[in-house]
Amino acid sequence: MSTDSWFSRIPQLRAPVSFGARPTGERLARVRRSPQFSAGALRNPVPTRRFAPGAPLGLLRDALSPDRYRRRPVAAVPVHRLTPAQLAQPPATGLRLTWLGHATVLAEIGASRVLFDPVWGERCSPFAAFGPRRLHPNPIPLAELGPVDLVVVSHDHYDHLDLPTVRQLARTGAQFAVPLGVGAHLERWQVAAGQITELDWHESAELAGLEVTAVPARHYCSRGPRLSACQLWASWVVAGPAHRLYHSGDTGWFPGFSAIGAQYGPFDATLMQIGAYSRWWPDVHLTPEQGVHAHQELGGELLLPVHWATFDLAPHPWEEPVERTLAAARAAGVTVAVPRPGVPFEPAAPPALRLWWRAVAAQPRAGAPDVRQPLADSGRTVSEGAAPGV
After folding, report:
1. Which positions ≥6 away from 187 have C-beta within 8 Å?
2. How far apart are alpha carbons 278 and 290 in whole angstroms?
3. Among 10, 225, 344, 363, which residue's beta carbon has the most beta carbons within 10 A?
4. By its UniProt entry, which InterPro entries does this protein fall under (predicted)?
């Protein structure tokens, strides 16, 4: 018997609050009216598999590989301790980004403060004692971050939607923009209905003085023991009067990035998922090379690689995503900023190259592949250096 059929036979079971909730009522009716809804479930833009054939045994072999030690840094990640004082002055150019680890980014767009996929929890898991644990602390306690006008959530996986973080932000009165159906989780967690805006792909809303649009992505939702057939995933476009951002959330490659760029771009920056990929789930996460290619098709000016360094979620070396991203970006002439977690920067003037992750990355064993390449500060590829006041 499958997990789905087993779970469906015990509707009286009250799932843990961390599992969230399924859509009901008008929220469910909206899901069923969506162009993405077919044969009882929300669908990807192209046919998609969660896992490739042979994944269980392949993942077991990867877990026992002699190179498994390389999935974590060997020393403390050099996080920059962000302070409220550094965020007190508005960005000189009207746009400032601060990568806080994994897919969490604070974007200051004009007078508005937007937090993408905020995760302050110690583990991305439904259980406090089990599941992937943070490899570095968040650069700033959430209580010190200051007011957040808008929280944008790409989908409901635990490394993007964190229950304690959501509850703390909700108490501040922040608005939440989430994909169709995901608001059911938030309401179960006591977020007021008036703070939640649910959007289908290509739907927009005016929130916190910004135009916020959900756009297609290739992924899936699930927080309990089975897939969430009626909760959508999305990438996001956030636009102010003078600046535009794209946040990929989690997505696999699909032939839709150029259309998103043509309709909603160009973008001052794209915040691209480039980590947690695997040959065992090739349809639902971008590789670093695909992330660079998607950035180009979107019409992005600067690429900020996200979704790496914070959690051990895939069988690749800890530093491999950024090394491969920089190599692909250099070959394509793409501008990349790779700050240490917690370093604020303005995309209009990204700082100079500094390969900070190499100091804490595990060295490959003799004879094993080494993804690192000599990377000069040349062309249009840049990374994090010592910015003024940091």
Report:
1. 21, 193, 196
2. 13
3. 344
4. Metallo-B-lactamas, RibonucZ/Hydroxyglut_hydro
Bond before 266 cis per omega within 30 degrees: yes
Inform me whether the pLDDT recorded for 351 exceeds 60. Answer: yes
What whole-number distance in Å separates Cα of residue 285 and Cα of residue 245? 20
pTM of the predicted structure, to 2 decimals: 0.93
Q: What is the DSSP string of 129-198?
A: TSSPBPSS--SS-GGGS---SEEE----STTT--HHHHHHHHTTT-EEEEETTTHHHHHHTT--GGGEEE
Per-residue tokens: 325:
């991203």
When the candidates are 2.160.10.10, 3.30.70.3270, 3.30.430.20, 3.60.15.10, the CATH number that belongs to 17-42+79-359 is 3.60.15.10
CB 338 within 8 A of CB 326: yes
Q: Please answer whether residues 307 and 250 qualify as being in contact, where contact means their C-beta atoms are separated by less than 8 angstroms.
A: yes
What is the rounded CA–CA span in Å between residue 14 and residue 184? 15
Structure tokens at 252: 């696999």
Closest by Cα among 269, 220, 240 to 49: 220
d(CA 387, CA 362): 27
Q: How many CB atoms lie within 10 A of CB 183?
A: 26
Domain boundaries, the chain: 17-42+79-359
3-state helix, strand, coil in the chain (%, to 5): 25, 20, 60
The DSSP element (H or E) to which 5 belongs, if any, is helix 3-8
Between 25-34, 85-94, 219-228, the lowest mean confidence (pLDDT) is in 219-228
User: Helix (H, G, I), strand (E, B), or coil: what is residue 261?
Assistant: helix
Lowest mean pLDDT among 8-17, 60-69, 188-197: 8-17
